[in-house]
Amino acid sequence: MCEPVSMGIMAAGSAGLGAIGSHQSASASARAQNEGAINSYKHQLQVREYRWNRERERYGHQIAQYKTQTLENEAAANRAYVSEQQRLNNIYQKAKFTQQDQLIKMAQGSGKIAASGMTGKGADRLSVDYVNAFRIQQEKLKESLLKAQTGYDTRTDAIRRQQISQQNQDFSNVAYAPEPGVAPPAPVMRQGPSGLSLATGLMGAGVDGLSTYAKFNDGKLPFA
Questions:
Q1: Is the distance from CB of 60 to CB of 174 less than 8 angstroms?
Q2: Terminal-residue alpha carbon distance, the chain
Q3: Residue 166: what pLDDT?
Q4: Residue 181 and residue 184: Cα distance in Å, rounded?
Q5: What b/e readout covers 137-152, taking b as 16+ CB neighbours within 10 angstroms?
Q6: DSSP line for 39-93
Q7: What is the CA 52 to chain-centroid distance, rounded?
Q8: Are 89 and 114 in contact (CB under 8 A)?
Q9: Beta carbons within 8 Å of 33's beta carbon, 6+ residues apart
Q10: Angle at 221 between CA 220 and CA 224, to 5 degrees
Q11: Which of 188 and 154 is assigned the larger pLDDT?
Q12: What is the DSSP letter of 175?
C-alpha cells in the first residue's frame, strides 16, 4: 500500500500535469484561431486589391475608348457641317447665276423696245412688264434662298443635337470612376489563457494533493 505522502504527490502531479496540458491546449487553440483569422484577413485584402486593380484597368480602357469616340464624333460632325455649308453655297451660287440671267433678260427686253422704235405708253407699259417680271423672279429667288437658309439652320442644329446626345451617351460609361471596395474588418484576436489561470490550476493541483494526503493519513495534513 502506498504511503500517504506518495499518494499526495501523485495526485498533485497528475492534477498539475492536467492543468499544464489544459493551459497549453487552450493557448495552442487560441494561437491557431488567431493565425487563421490573420491569414483570412490578408487573403481578403489581396482579393480587394486584385479587384481594385482590375476595375482601374477597365476604367482606364473605357476612358481611352471615350476619348477616341469623342474625336470620331467631332470629325463626323465637322464633315456633316462642311457638307451642309457646301450645299448652301451651291444654292447661293446658283441663285447668283439665276439673278444674272434675269438681269440679262430684262436688259435684252429693254433693248428690244429701244430697237423697235416703240415709244409712248405702249413702250412704257412693255418696259414695266419686264421690270415687274424681274421683280417677281427676284421675290421667288429671295423666298428660295430663305428656305435654303432655314433648311441649313435646321439640319446643322440637328447635327449639333445629335453630337451632344451621342457625347452624353458615351460619357455615361465613364461618368463615375471606380472606387476600392470596403476594406474587410480587422480580425479580432482571441486571448489565450493567462498565466494566472495556470497558477490557479497548479494551486488547485496542490490542494488536491493535500486532500489526498489527508485522506490516507486520517485527515492530518503533513504540516500539522
A1: no
A2: 23
A3: 93
A4: 9
A5: beeebeeeeeebeeeb
A6: HHHHHHHHHHHHHHHHHHHHHHHHHHHHHHHHHHHHHHHHHHHHHHHHHHHHHHH
A7: 12
A8: no
A9: 190
A10: 90
A11: 154
A12: S
Residue type, 40: S
* Least reliable range by pLDDT among 52-61, 115-124, 182-191, 202-211: 202-211
Residue tagged 495552442 (cell numbers): 28
Asked whether 206 and 11 are in contact (CB, 8 A), the reply is: no
Instruction: Count the residues in the chain.
Output: 224
In the structure grid, which three cell numbers stand for residue 113, read together? 423696245
Do the beta carbons of residue 134 and residue 102 sit within 8 Å?
yes
Three-state secondary structure call for residue 183 = coil
Q: Going by C-beta distance under 8 Å and a sequence separation of 6 or more, which residues neighbour residue 4?
A: 212, 213, 214, 215, 216, 217
- Backbone phi, psi, residue 189, to 5°: -75, 135
In tens, the pLDDT along 53-84 reads: 999 999 999 999 999 999 999 999 999 999 99
- Distance CA(214)–CA(224), nearest Å, equals 10
**Residue 36: pLDDT band by 50, 70, 90 thresholds?**
confident
Phi, psi of 104 (to 5 degrees): -65, -45
